[in-house]
Design goal:
Elements lengths: L2 H5 L32 H18 L1 H7 L6 E3 L9 E7 L13 E15 L3 E4 L18 E2 L2 E6 L5 E6 L1 H14 L21 E3 L1
Parallel strand pairs: 4-8
Antiparallel strand pairs: 1-2, 2-3, 3-6, 4-5, 6-7
The structure holds zinc ion.
Catalytic activity: N-terminal N-formyl-L-methionyl-[peptide] + H2O = N-terminal L-methionyl-[peptide] + formate
Cofactor: Fe(2+)
EC number: 3.5.1.88
């Protein structure tokens, strides 16, 4: 049975066993574009990937299924070398513990996503990045573009163009890197991992 067939069976929930780890050759491939209309499997895979992220952020499900929390997942990470990424970025609770008005600041499955323009200004997360495919810590600033414009298709084949900044911009760049065979630590300066270049924005 092909990987995508196995992952998209109706009873299957993606878990950590489906996620390939650093060193697996699929993580270093440039993934193939999808063509439209999408196959049922490509649509269901996107939904399952988003479902994984939702479960990974739910304390009860995450505990039960043994999931590491995640805000993004790219198809190559489940060994499907296609240009499909899922992102699910929750909005924070208010300081008094009230749930946010909108649960998510970003919730989408993006097919053939492409960065069509970006700021010259660079940004990095203050605490560095992690990855569901990388089990060990890789400390250092992951240098990225601060703002990006992304074009992508949704599951219906409709084209969208979105502008992203801050954390959402970082998450989408991390996932688009995966479909290009790039790992986050490739973007850390090996000699000086915490060097703050001129104009670098450090994000919380
Ligand atoms: Zn990753």
């Amino acid at each position: 049975m092909s990987v995508i067939k196995r992952l998209t069976r109706s009873s299957h929930l993606i878990d950590m066993d489906d996620i390939i780890r650093d060193g697996h050759p699929t993580l270093r491939l440039k993934a193939e574009e999808v063509t439209f209309p999408l196959s049922d499997e490509e649509i269901i895979l996107g939904e399952k990937m988003l479902g994984f992220l939702r479960n990974s952020q739910d304390p009860v499900m995450a505990e039960k299924m043994g999931l590491r929390g995640g805000v993004g997942l790219a198809a190559p990470q489940v060994d499907v070398s296609k240009r499909i990424i899922a992102v699910l970025v929750p909005n924070p609770e208010s300081p008094d513990g009230e749930p946010p008005k909108e649960a998510y600041s970003l919730q989408e499955v993006l097919y053939n996503p492409k960065i069509v323009s970006h700021s010259v200004q660079r940004a990095a997360l203050k605490d560095g990045e992690g990855c569901l495919s990388v089990d060990e810590d890789k400390p250092g600033y992951v240098l990225r573009n601060s703002r990006i414009t992304v074009e992508y298709f949704d599951k219906h084949g409709e084209k969208h163009r979105i502008k992203l900044k801050g954390y959402n911009s970082i998450v989408v760049q991390h996932e688009i890197d995966h479909i290009n065979g790039v790992m986050f630590y490739d973007r850390i300066n090996i000699q000086e991992p915490f060097r703050v270049e001129d104009g670098l924005i450090l994000l919380d």
